[in-house]
Each structure stands twice: as C-alpha cells, then as structure tokens.
Amino acid sequence: MFLTNEHPDYRKPLDPVDAETLGTKAAEEVERYLTYRDNHAPTPLHTLPALASELGVGTIHIKDEGFRLGLGSFKALSGSYAVIRLVLEEAGRRLGRPVDLVELHAPEVRSIASGMTVACATDGNHGRSVAQGARLVGARAAIFVHSGVSRERVAAIARFGAQMIRVEGTYDDSVAEAARASAEMGWTVVSDTSWPGYERIPGLVMQGYTAIVREALRQLPGPPTHVFVQAGVGGVAAAIAGHLAILLGDRRPTFIVVDPARAACLFETARAGHPVRIDHGEPTVMAMLECYEPSLVAWRVLSRVADAFMTVDEEDAVAAMNRLARPVGDDPAIVAGESGGAGLAGLMRAAADPAMRARLAVDAKSHVFIVNTEGATDPSRYAALVGMAPADVVAPLAAE
Description:
Elements: E1 2-4, H1 16-21, H2 24-34, E2 45-47, H3 49-55, E3 59-64, H4 79-95, H5 107-114, E4 117-122, H6 125-137, E5 140-146, H7 151-158, E6 163-167, H8 171-185, E7 188-189, H9 200-208, H10 210-219, E8 226-230, H11 235-248, E9 254-260, H12 265-272, H13 296-305, E10 308-312, H14 314-325, H15 342-351, H16 354-360, E11 367-372, H17 379-386, H18 390-399
Parallel strand pairs: 3-11, 4-5, 4-7, 5-6, 8-9, 8-11, 9-10
Antiparallel strand pairs: 1-10, 2-3
Helix pairs in contact: 4-5, 4-6, 4-9, 6-7, 9-11, 11-13, 14-15
C-alpha cells in the first residue's frame, strides 16, 4: 500500500516545541552527551553500488546502527540519553542549581539517582537502552515486556539489572500497564511513544535520534534526494525527517515512512488524517515495529514533513535481510535484524513498482539514504530467517 501526504499541515513549519526539540542546538547537546559514553563512535555508513544499479538508482547509502554503543540498535541513542537528562534535571531540582553532565558521577548526584526508578514498555531495544541508562547513572529500572518479546531479548535487557515485568497482550497493552503501574509506584516513565499530557519525555527520546542525521550528513558525499525510514510508533522517522527539514529547508529530501503491513498504524493514521489505533492481527516478523497506535508527537511532526507513507509485507522484510547478508559485486555484507532492513524493503518495493517510482521521482539520479536500525538483536531468529549466523555474515569482512 502507498499514499502521499495529503494532510492540511503538510509542508507547514514544525510546531515550535518540536522545532526546538529537533533543532540544531538540541542536536549539538545530544552529541556532547555522546562524548561521555563508553564505546561511542559514529556508526558506519555503507555504500551499495551493486544494489543501486540493480534498483535503477544513483546511489544507496545505509547507516548501520547495529554498531551503536554496544547495544546493536539505534535505540541506544534514545532511552539512555533521556534517563541521563532526567537524572540531571532531578538533581538540579534537589540541589537548587543547574547540574551538568560532567557531574553525573558526583556522589550527591549518584545519591539522588539511586532513589529513582525509570520504567518503560518495550519490544526489546528501547528497554535495553533505558536499562543501560539506569545502570550508568545508578538508578533502578522496571521494564515491561509483552508476550511477544522473545526470551533472548528479555535476557539482553535483564543483564543490565532491570526488573522485568511480563504483560499479556501487545506492545500497546504493555505501554498502558507501564503507565498504570508507574503512577501507582511513583516511577518515572521513559516511553518512546506519547499520549495526551505526556510529550516531553518522548520528545527527549526522539531528540537522541538526531545524532544519526548529523553523523550521516558528515559521512555522505552530499545530501540525499530520498530517505526511506521504518516506523513503529514513528519516533525515529519523525526525528530524522524533522531534523532534515530544519537543516535543509527547501532542499530536504523526499521522505518516505515505511510500515509493516500487519502493524501499519502510521499508514492508517495518514490515510485517516488523524491518529488512529488499529486492530491487532497476526504478528509481524518485524517485531520491533509491531505497534498499533502512533506516538502523538511523532505524528505531529510527520504530518508536516513526511512526503509519503507505504507498507511492506513479511516477505519483503526477509528479502531485504537476505540481500544485505548476501551482497553482490562490491557491496559490503550487512547484518540487519527483522526490523532493521524494513527501510530498504520499502525502497526495493518502490523501485519495482513503476507507478510508485513515478510518484516519488525515483530514478537513476536518486541518492537514497536508509537506516539499518538494528543488527541481530535476536541472533536465533536472525539465523532462522537468513540461514546464517550473524558472525558468519560479517566474517568475510573481518578477514579482509
């Protein structure tokens, strides 16, 4: 399914709050925070000339977030960042003065953090980032996971010392339970989705993703003409689209939001013209994108700066994973998890459809930017879908 943005707010300026959240000054602060993180380095940007030729586009560049801060996912930029910001703000309130990042490990700040509990619902990656952030600052973490989250992903979160709480139902059910229990226990919810009256913290989460754009624009030979980014609740898509719009203005690329067909909450929201909750059906293989209601903040941004919305099927996502794992020509091998390659799946589907190509002006002069949002965060699932272990995919590169 495919549609262009027909919302009345399309191409209007961002809401002032969102422009501040995703603006240059905020993004610079995110990068300053990253300099204090162990294992911080810009993630690789891969060029895929053979695939570009195959799809009839000029260039394809993929930003590989599988290498982000040792967590294997773009989410490493967001949950931990928001937790650190919240701890410093609470310390400032308690101490009666501004508290900067350089004081994060000061005894008085650690003492305040130790009395805080941060909580969130997760499909896997966001919870791992929040739990890591809590460990970094000395706070406690309570992570709510729905019944579809694999044991491997739960174990990856628990290793940071988080309290794991299982919730029957979907991701959206776990979001509701995290909010309910946190209100009862006095915990701070660090969610990557927003709802009426709860927007600032999801805004901080989105703010963390601006680092992807800033790194990519320094790595790319020039601005892209097209960007395909996958969406769950819409946070990363909105952050990338919003920051690109602020930086590039009228020169910004055509931005396409890619949803799983089985969990297309943003596609259906765009079709309706307002946020909608869709029915839960058969689970999607794109587990990190299996969300049935969009973030209100993300939709407010995307309604203005996204140019088109589309869906990809299960086989599209698996085909993208396998194409990246088994490259041709001089293309590098890339480990993309089930959700990580969904943006590429969107490009591959669009390139094969003459009508879609024409609507998006995808041609031999197009320079396409895509984000591989995760590596093999569930190695067993990855091996089952690709037929190779993640280590076997990247082994030839290591040998070089």
